[in-house]
Amino acid sequence: MYILTGNGLFQTGQSSCGFGRTEVIDNTLDPDFVRKYILDYFFEEKQNLRFDVYDIDSKSPDLAKHDFLGQVFCTLGEIVGSPASRLEKPLGGILGKKCGTIILSAEELGNCRVIATMQFCAHKLDKKDFFGKSDPFMVFYRSNEDGTCTICHKTEVVKNTLNPVWQAISIPVRALCNGDFDRTIKAEVYDWDRDGSHDFIGEFTTSYRDLSRGQSQFNVYEVVNAKKKFKKKRYINSGTVTLLSFTSTSLHYMNPYQMNAYAMALKAVGEIIQDYDSDKMFPALGFGAKLPPDGQVSHEFPLNGNIENPYCNGMEGILQAYHQSLKTVQLYGPTNFAPVVNHVAKYAAAVQDGSQYFVLLIITDGVISDMAQTKEAIVNAAKLPMSIIIVGVGQAEFDAMVELDGDDIRISSRGKLAERDIVQFVPFRDYMDRTGNHVLSMARLAKDVLAEIPEQLILYMKSRGIKPCLLPPLNEEPGPEDQDHAQTTPV
After folding, report:
1. Are residues 355 and 404 in the same domain?
2. Tens digits of per-residue pLDDT, 240-272?
3. Which of 141, 213, 263, 460 is deepest in the core (most CB within 10 A)?
């Protein structure tokens, strides 16, 4: 998966279907855009891209009403395969006119899901306005391996002050440093001008690791203008910027006073399902992480770290293994579902006489990198004694998960329809009680997410002609001829 960035005012399209527009940057011939586009990259496929550049003159969304400045065609492979994954091409499309150039860059996207929330203030910045002080704002850049920088955030403008306090900003850590905590982050400070010719005040560098220290003497930065420093011997700086606060959040964050969304969803659903398992021993797998000691990426690793025996004792055992695994593995992309679906399907395929029924609970933030393979795995699993529950946590768009849930359109793969619907998906956020009553939230979640399991089980049994086993009367010991039935009552 790659994140695509560009320099130039453009709308971008894949084949003939547009999928995004950048923000508009006023009054400049050399725009540098913040907005990025995330694309799945397939080495074996030709992925055509087209970039159209426009001069926006009004608020109309109709591009026909704006001035066309040029276009360029390329493939995603061209960008990825260019030196440092940075492609520069001339714009065309207007006969007899030079339209400028567009610079496109791509970077493999790390799977870091942490959000950093920071607030900054500045002190004694240089005065740039003749009638007044300055209208300062900051621009943050992520450094690249080839020495270039990619813009990743702009603050708001604070008018007429040399001591601005900017609003708190929330930036995905993968946008700041792509999960590399020691990668250089550059910040530039400007005085805003209406005509777009913003005056450069100065800059400083930091890193995510330094910022994560929070407010301290280490996070007071001198804003330096190299040109002024070269010209003036007594020059010290153009002011200072101070980090006022820093917090980072992750869906996997372990709050000592409250379970995270993953643990809450696991406990809510698991505590009900476990009553239908005789020994309360459950295999628990993780996916999308680098494992010690060699850092190999795995999509079906045992949470308890024991490959030979991945079973955990009840929900408490699973939660304990989950918390312990977060301390030993590094979460990492891509995120593949097919391996865990096939893992459970392998066991379900070995027991198709109705004596066992398997329920796979997947808790995910919605990112999936192997949609085609997962569809095929689900279609194959639909003929086996198993169901799949997917709980989506976080604020992501869950379009892919809804597609896997075959309520509206039966899932298919390679022209083959699933024999029955075995997937139930719910977004966890829909069940969060506004009053903070997590017990009520989990009860509602469990009720809805488990509602389809009995019907799915019965449909499988009926399709295979498997009838319920007869149990002996409560006060009667089973005879030799009833022994098998007494021990194999289906769920």
Report:
1. yes
2. 999 999 987 777 777 666 788 788 888 888 888
3. 460
